[in-house]
Amino acid sequence: MRAPLFIGSEIYRKSTYGSKHPLAIPRVSTVIDLCRAQGWLTPSNYRVSPCAKPSALMAFHTPDYITALQQAERDQAVSDETRQKYALGTLSNPVFPEMYRRPATAAGGSMLGAELIRDKGIVYNPAGGTHHGLANRANGFCYLNDPVLAILTLLNAGLDRIVYIDIDAHHCDGVEAAFHGSTKVRMISVHEAYRWPFSGTLDNDAGGAAFNLPVARNLNDDEFYAILDQLILPATTSFAPQAIVLQCGADAVAEDPLSRLTLSNNAHWHAVTQIRDVAPRLLVLGGGGYNPWSVARLWTGVWATLNRIEIPDVLNPSAQAVLRELTWNRVAGKQPPRHWFETLRDAPNHGEIRSELRNDLKFLAERI
Ligand SMILES: [Zn+2]
Predict the structure, then answer these.
(1) Ligand 1 mean position to 290 CA, how many Å?
(2) Which has the least CB within 10 A, 40, 88, 104, 290?
(3) What does the alpha-carbon distance between residue 109 and residue 7 come to, in Å, rounded to a whole number?
């Protein structure tokens, strides 16, 4: 089996959505630095992400939207009409210097990832996972939808059984809209109930293509393992997927400011371990994640897990230095706990499996 490949770019290092935006923080650059410091990333397993050409993006996005996005980057401003029509230049989807090139690079990375696993293999593009993007407008910090573009690339390569698994705290409304009613793509999403974008209710099956599980606040690790065993794994294997695309957003952990879910990062790594060998092709993407320490530690651990590297209890001094250099303009960032600097692994968050979740899992199991 060929070693997993990591797709990255230096465009993410300095780029931010603006100082007041949740994506003011560095994410992918920290993951790259941590993986390099630990000796887990070398020229042989790293690929530079290409910036996707407009024509490639039009496999999903409308030409007028792509033109408007490029124009907004050039002008560094938008008209009222563009703001209304394309949701560009809003608080969520602000104008910033790389507002076309950055998402086009993330999308180029996910499409390259899909091409690299055409025969088989594992690729990790932590800059990907922008699951809210719509064909003709920006949505929820997502200007483009790289998971959709990656899945379309796999379909165009001739595959016809693809499972998309999304464990971000938010529902994957953009991906679901793209593959509503599909018989070739099965979507499985676990997300916090009653949270933006408020779609993905339990009874919504996207024309038979989706399993949606909204979960209550304070989701714990044991509840997540029940979801993995009773929904994610059986719904994946019963589809006999030729490829799996895993959106591994890092915003369902306890310290994330944009959700009320309280997983430890052990949950995500366990999911990666369980999903890793189910299909011959695996593309792992990032997604949400708004605490710079949580995101960096979780996604670095995902890379270690894909490579079957045992995650050390204590990081080496240069990796710790990477984490000590981070800053975060939030109360929780003023005095970060020591384990945010010294370890990747969170303490597990065990708990009881609540009856509401048991019932919802039973409801969905009848459709598997
Ligand atoms: Zn999210």
Answers:
(1) 9
(2) 40
(3) 6
